[in-house]
Amino acid sequence: MKLSRSYYESLLYDLLKPFVNLYDEAESSIIIPNEIEVSYDTRTMRLESFSRSLLGWSMLPGHEDIKRVIFTMIKNGINSKCNKYWGEIYDNDQKIVEIFPILLYCIENRNLFESLFDEQSRNNLQEWCLQINKVQVPINNWQFFIVLVNTFLRILGLKYSKNSIEHAFENIEKMYIGDGWYSDGNSLQRDYYIPFALHYYSLLYAKYCPEDKRSITFIKRSTIFSKSFMLFFSNSGNAIPFGRSLTYKFAQVAFWSIYSNFIEDKEVLSVIKGIIERNIKWWMSQKIFDSNGFLNIGYCYTNQFMSEFYNAKGSSYWCLKSFIFLLNSSDYFFKIDSSKLENKNNTPRRYIPAIFSTIMFHQGHSYMFMNGQKCNNEFGNTEAKYEKFLYTTHCAPCVCRSVSGIENLACDNSLIIKIGQSFIIRKNSHILENNEHVMVSEWKPFNDVSIITYIFPNVPYHYRIHVVNTKISFKLYDFGTAVCKNNSLIKSTKDNKAFCYNTNQISGIYTLFDNGFSSICDCSPNVNLQYPKVVIPYTCTNFEKGKHYIVNCCYNGIAEIENTTKIQVKTD
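RE: above sequence
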């Protein structure tokens, strides 16, 4: 069954419908019910809620009555003499981000803009937006806002700064690291901001400025990037959850949505269409809406433990970027059938140096073995979002809700040291070696302890060797992957092997040579991004002063594992 243009327009309208009653010609922003505070000021937070909704109205035809109200609200916000003025823009201001959706809305509703904006209103818009060229903008994906804002002003026939565009492009080029990958600033984090920000904005520029030679470069880079990014998605549609801003949900496929506009090959386009369809369907099957019909803060359900301090009630609507295929230059995208991803179960491991990762597949799921990503900023739970041994579509990772007890720490696919009653989570380890066969890192929680870990990527089993050098005594916990705690859950710690499984998942871990013990952690609720209740198998070993070796075996998936655990599970 082909999903038509009207299907997606209807779905987009359903997402936007809760906003309609919040738009008011006397206002310039909106208050989403049950809003929470964030790191930037409340006025900007409410501007964000308004501006991000405009992404959807940029891509949805019709609804002129609503759009007229929105244009009136924009005129209020850019008028410095109005008490609803959005305010001056300062260095590193969140408002820098919110200009781009407003101008995109003006461009894609050009006829209304031309009829409703008189000379004074156009001058107000121009002057408010041009502030972006006078303030400090972080050298990361935000540099593209300088490019897009000035470009969109030019398209609208308003003043703009060519010099600002050129300078921003110089900074953007410094972030390109090859093989289709960018670095989001001077950092070691290579997360979804690469596809849904840096590549998305580069292709958006290519869409509106096809005459620029840079556009050809951007498209070529995106084509190279697509080969590795395709590996992030499971056969069921969900993508590997890792990194920050996961509350943006199906923004995970925003790259594919805009990239589709540049693809003519039917087979390639049908694969891209399938990735988009399955991902959006998967998200629509999750509990991502609150009781008022707005997207919640969280991943698969309402969960503020996993959020960043810049995640407001309107922040999640960055996901509306994913509907940009509604602006494709032709209907070809909607006329072809979507196709499944090729059978990846026997695909060899793929090492991707740019993201310090090896990706493999098993039974339709993607597995990313990670060694080297770090987040420059302490947004919250960054060690959980970037520094675990493994991230997989099999089960989303957990975040910490408290430093008291392993149940609250919930360190799936990571290590914890316990000294006395204090716990220390693995963080800020250093790469010793990375290749497709082994990933080696050293973690020095303090001077008296060094733990060198060897990860041998494989599925469904993989091995972890920990080489411990210590001058003090402590306990070392090593955790496997989380599993949903539901009515079908079965737990087993037979023969010092900890396994837990339900009808869809299985996870296990045990220590070779009978060092320490294995058990199952019954985690506190709401630590996992995907399931409100989970359990995690783990091993625990006591170490005294000296040098020690420990070898752990981990299992993830659904398979018959009778030879290892005496437990037999049917293949899903």
